[in-house]
Amino acid sequence: MIFDTHAFVKKLVVAGMPEAQAEVIANEQTRLIDENLATKHDLKQLEMAMRHDLKQLEQSMTIRTGAMIFALGGFMAAIKFFA
Q1: Which Gene3D superfamilies match (predicted)?
Q2: What are the angstrom distances between the C-alpha of 15 and each of 8, 18, 68?
């Protein structure tokens, strides 16, 4: 994202703000935008981390589901055995 500091300063000066103050505000605004804006690289890293976490969750759920099915089978066998 490109922030036109020159145009921003001009608008503030036209609105009655001293130029030095307008420049400080424009520079600070630019700094805030640069610090808080996510880049494509940031988003790609986040996507990779989320995919990894999702894959781990899928594996965990598969293992737990298998364990529950196995336990249910054992429970059903025990019921038949003792009934």
Answers
A1: 1.20.5.340
A2: 11, 9, 69
* Whether residue 32 sits in one domain with residue 43: no
pLDDT, mean of residues 35-46 = 92
Domain that holds residue 79: 39-83
Residues 47 and 83 in one domain: yes
Q: Do 82 and 72 have their domain in common?
A: yes
Sign for the CA dihedral angle at 57, 58, 64, 67 comes to negative
Three-state secondary structure string covering 30-48: HHHHHHHCCCHHHHHHHHH
Whole-prediction pTM value?
0.56
Mean pLDDT of the chain: 94
Residue 26 to residue 57: CA distance in whole angstroms: 45
